[in-house]
Design brief:
Protein name: Aspartate aminotransferase family protein
Structural class: alpha/beta
Bound molecules: pyridoxal-5'-phosphate
Number of strands: 16
Pfam families: Aminotran_3
Strand order of the largest sheet: 4-10-9-8-7-5-6
Order of helices and strands: HEEEHHHEHEHEHEHEEEHHHEEEHEEEH
Shape: globular
Distance between the termini: 54 Å
Mean pLDDT: 97
Strand content: 15-25%
GO molecular function: transaminase activity
Family: Belongs to the class-III pyridoxal-phosphate-dependent aminotransferase family.
Radius of gyration: 22 Å
Keywords: Aminotransferase, Pyridoxal phosphate, Transferase
Low-confidence stretches: none
């Protein structure tokens, strides 16, 4: 009998071209199945998914309600062009509008996060008649031409020059303050003064939008200090600039609210989403529009569209996901777990491990930042390290996997981003495994 698992691996290596990677170095784990917060490979080896795949699997693997919704929709109508109305699409849009911040009421659907940001920028430019977009260092907004230009991390470098009109600024990062601030209050004040200066030097009348991740995800789980987002909103209002909140990673319960901006009561003009909207079961993303943008395109055509905008299978999965999240009060559960379980446990890790410089987060969105020296805050591995320079982090990853936990790591950080439905026991078990694994990082720390 043919060994299917071996075939899957062999065909992958022979024919699959993977994202962001040098192909020959790859040795992918072939995943056979998953349930809830666990998945297993073809040899039956199980991992606790502390990455939620790519921080999208909010309801865990194979949630029966979401699986059934996709099956029912598939049996009824698999696809329909975007010009038609469709019950799954209408309901998904209504549910998203119901949980959206403030007066955002309309949804433009895309296939994922990068297309959402591309279209949000197009909407902002069309609404304001201006072309510049201000985007932050330490951000990720997607891999297509416009979104990769908005991105403030090394993934942009090999893709330049790309979209014209993007101007960069620094957002707040209290642990490594770009503004030499010594308190959160000072960080807010100086980050806003810096942004205001960028406005002045660029000419506010040329700026269409500011785009930011409400809580920066991959680039560090950077939580805006009190007053920052409100200050950006005020600055944008003063100059007629639109605020785009990228909630692709931070939205749909991840931060313990439907959207991360809800923590600070700030209402953006445009919110982009993807990932958690349907737990990633079928590709889906989109832009939620406020009245200013909607009214612009109420009378004149919006110059954008996609064959799969509002795909019925993806929208049916979104409807089921949002219903489950509402019925099971998932955002509230996440908020509770974050404060009651994760925060105190990670604070203990900081006390115990000389390699832990900082822990920060909210909901089920946390970062453990690893350093060689707590005094100087020298990173455990340098920014954008690869190869031998990245070895200490590779060792941490290997130690987590040996302990049955699939971690999310980026540069010198381990992120704690499990599915929102993880049991409390599994959550503690996973953090305990990271706790053990960090001893290999301690060996590199002063
Ligand atoms: N924006 C943020 C904040 C993200 O984290 C990501 C993906 O990780 C994207 C946009 C891009 O989303 P996608 O990969 O679905 O295009």
């Amino acid at each position: 009998m043919t060994d299917q698992r071996t075939d899957a691996y062999r065909d992958d290596r022979a024919h699959v071209f993977h994202s962001w990677s040098a192909q020959r170095a790859l040795d992918p784990v072939v995943v056979d199945g998953g349930e809830g917060a666990t998945f297993w490979d073809e040899s039956g080896r199980r991992y606790l998914d502390f990455a939620s795949q790519l921080v999208n699997l909010n309801l865990g693997h194979q949630h029966p309600r979401v699986v059934a919704a996709i099956q029912e929709q598939a049996a009824k109508l698999c696809t329909i062009a975007p010009t038609f109305g469709n019950a799954a699409r209408s309901e998904a849009a209504r549910l998203i509008a119901e949980v959206a911040p403030g007066d955002l009421r309309h949804v433009f659907f895309t296939n994922g996060g990068t297309e959402a940001n591309e279209h949000a920028v197009r909407m902002a430019r069309g609404t304001t008649g201006r072309h510049k977009v201000l985007a932050a260092y330490r951000s990720y907004h997607g891999a297509t031409t416009g979104s990769i230009t908005l991105t403030g991390d090394p993934r942009r470098w090999a893709n330049e020059p790309a979209m014209p009109g993007v101007v960069r600024f620094f957002g707040p990062y209290p642990y490594r303050s770009p503004f030499h601030a010594t308190s959160e209050e000072q960080e807010t004040q100086r980050a806003l003064a810096h942004l205001e200066e960028v406005f002045t030097f660029e000419g506010p009348h040329t700026i269409a939008a500011v785009i930011l991740e409400s809580v920066v995800g991959t680039n560090g789980i950077l939580i805006p200090p009190p007053g920052y987002l409100a200050g950006v909103r005020e600055l944008c209002d003063r100059h007629g600039v639109l605020l785009i909140a990228d909630e692709v990673m931070s939205g749909f319960g991840r931060c313990g609210e439907w959207f991360a901006v809800d923590h600070w009561g700030v209402v953006p003009d445009l919110v982009t989403f993807a990932k958690g909207v349907n737990s990633g079961y079928v590709p889906l993303g989109g832009v939620i529009l406020g009245p200013r943008v909607y009214e612009t395109f109420a009378e004149r055509p919006f110059p954008g569209g996609l064959t799969y905008s509002g795909h019925p299978l993806a929208c049916a999965a979104a409807v089921a996901t949002i219903e489950v999240m509402r019925e099971e009060s998932v955002p509230e559960r996440v908020r509770d777990l974050g404060e009651r379980v994760v925060r105190p446990r990670l604070e203990k890790l900081r006390e115990r491990h000389p390699s832990v410089g900082d822990v920060r987060g909210l909901g089920l969105f946390w970062a453990i930042e690893l350093v060689r020296d707590r005094e100087t805050r020298e990173m455990l591995v340098p920014y954008n390290a690869a190869g031998p320079a990245a070895k200490p982090m590779a060792e941490v990853v290997a130690a987590c996997k040996e302990r049955g936990v699939w971690p999310f790591t980026h540069f010198n950080r381990v992120h704690v981003v499990p599915p929102l439905v993880i049991s409390e026991d599994d959550l503690l078990r996973g953090i305990d495994a990271i706790d053990d694994a960090l001893e290999v990082a301690d060996a590199h720390a002063a």
